Please model this.
Amino acid sequence: MAFKLCILLAVAAVAKAGVVPVAPAGPVLAKIEDFDPAPQYSFAYDVQDSLTGDSKAQYETRNGDIVQGSYSLVEPDGTRRIVEYTADPVNGFNAVVNREPAVAVAPVVAKAAPVVASAPVVARTAPLLAAPVAYTIPRAVAARLNVPVGAPVVV
Model:
């Protein structure tokens, strides 16, 4: 009885296995004429979009197994990240990252319509900075800052 059970389980295992794919007879090789022993290329791009503020650039050159390049972009905090990189079979991939401080960008101002009648020019005699103003801290702000309610603040 055990022999019949072993035969039944073996037949079930073979049936469950299904069809096994067969590998090709020989190795698949790339065509020799498609292989370039000393590849060479060079490319570059530069994006400067004043509408969206997108600013990035990249260039790269390859001569055989040696690749050199650089890319730069403006990060969300306004700093410019510049990455200069090289890759070769001896040293591998190496990158040097530099950051430049944020550059203040002047906002785009719409051109105003020309003024037909000009107003008289009045000399300004008042100081540009006003005298200090004292006010009391509101209750909610005082609680958050842990100061007494009604404490005077000079601004």
